[in-house]
Amino acid sequence: MQYETVIGLEVHTELATQSKIFCACTTKFGGAANTHVCPVCSGMPGSLPVLNRAVVEYAIRTGLATHCAITRSTKFDRKNYFYPDLPKAYQISQLYQPICTDGWISITGAEGEAKRINIREIHMEEDAGKLVHDPWEDASLADFNRCGVPLLEIVSQPELRSASEAIDYIERLKAILEYTGVSDCKMQEGSLRADVNLSVRPVGSPVLGTRTEMKNINSLRAIARAIAAETARQIELIEDGGRVVQETRRWDDDAGESHAMRSKEDAQDYKYFPEPDLPPIEISEAQIEKIRAALPELPDDKKRRYIEAFGLPEYDTGILTGSIHLVRLFERTAQFCGDPKEAANWILGEVLRLLQQTQTLPEDMQFDPDALGKLILLVKQNTINRGTAKKVFAEVFQHNVEPESYVKANNLALVTDDGAIRETLRQMLAANEKSAAEYRAGKEQALQYLIGQGMRALRGQAPAQEVTRILKEMLA
Ligand SMILES: [Zn+2]
Question: Which tens digit of pLDDT belongs to each residue from 273-324?
């Protein structure tokens, strides 16, 4: 039988606000354990939460950028459960009136077509702390620094059909969150992580199969692997006459397999009720319009504009606009050198190659953003050739050298002085009298040899056309 995979994603993103959602503690990543805490976020009795308004604004921004409706009258709910990294034994979240509903993101489907993935809702909530397992002491320690860091949970409809669609969805969502400044989306720091809801069903069946949920996966590679493994596990189970049990599973990326954690609980198990310590939030039309007016150009619009304005191919443009960091570099470089097409070629070529080769993320690029533009100008002005420019750029990329002074200090500029080229060629010809004589006697190949020798004598630093022209003149 042929099966199809049905995937829904719950993406959690930590917001880039300065302070936490219900207190003034910093949201900074890391820090010595339990130094970013206060009575509110460490759940001391008698402390009361005060909502950080920036969180509401960031949520609205995200909702508008993903075509959601904004709930004008929204509120928080209390989700009760005990976990050692949750000192209050409840999480303040939203169940009944999430701040955003019914949006969508466009992804690329299996046939290369544009496919809309609907977003059921986006809600605001607080993050929990972190347990640090210490194998030497045989103990687990609780670090509450992350408690109360604001989160958005973005819940898709189960409309994704493969790992590649799921990855595309997350990448598009990540770009939107980065463009709008809502989150830094650093997956390696847990700023963006996904719960994967997955079921399988016979192709063509209108009925959804029983789903499992894999929690908190924080790399794209792990998400893709988890989807492939869970799909195979469920199909095998069904083919063997068994049935899938609704449960939460933990994905172990090192082992490449998942393990049952607990049977899946329903909302009623958490005994949600309206959060009594926080008043409801009323959002005015004017507030929404103000935020809408301040939205930046979004990835899809930017992509369309780049394709039209610069004649860039669609696939490449998608890569470029998929990262705000590449976009920033591109726009700065294009402006500096006045040649957007050339700027794009460099970024899609050398920049991506070096990022890949050095395993660097676009957000970690360290060089002066004007350096690439300067380098492109040096090529255009015939100061250096393309091959040299690539070598210089590798130095710019890794050591942030200044292109012009690096070219000067390393004597990499092209020899464009006619007299200097002639002098070098004269010496070269003196050492290659035989070939020169052969060429003069009509042997054409001898010229190629002499050009090669000439370029070598000039260390490749003269324009080849110039060398050919002068050499022919000298041999005439
Ligand atoms: Zn605090």
Answer: 999 999 999 999 999 999 999 999 999 999 999 999 988 888 899 999 999 9
Provide the whole-model pTM.
Answer: 0.87
Strand positions, DSSP E, 135-242 = 139-143, 150-156, 192-202, 212-217
Q: What is the pLDDT of residues 121-168, one digit of tens each?
A: 999 999 999 998 888 888 999 999 999 999 999 999 999 999 999 999
The whole domain housing 399 covers: 297-409
Instruction: State the virtual CA torsion across 355, 356, 358, 361 in degrees, nearest 10.
Output: 50
Cα of 85 to ligand 1 centre, how many Å?
Answer: 14
What is the whole-number distance in angstroms between the Cα of residue 129 and the centre of ligand 1? 12
Please give the distance, rounded to the nearest whole angstrom, from the Cα atom of residue 132 to the centre of ligand 1. 20
280 CA distance to ligand 1 centroid (A)? 21
Q: Are residues 106 and 250 located together in one domain of the fold?
A: yes
- Same domain, yes or no: 208 and 249: yes
29 and 76 both lie in a single domain:
yes
The residue from 264, 288, 312 where one domain ends is 288
Element (H, E) at 354: helix 352-357
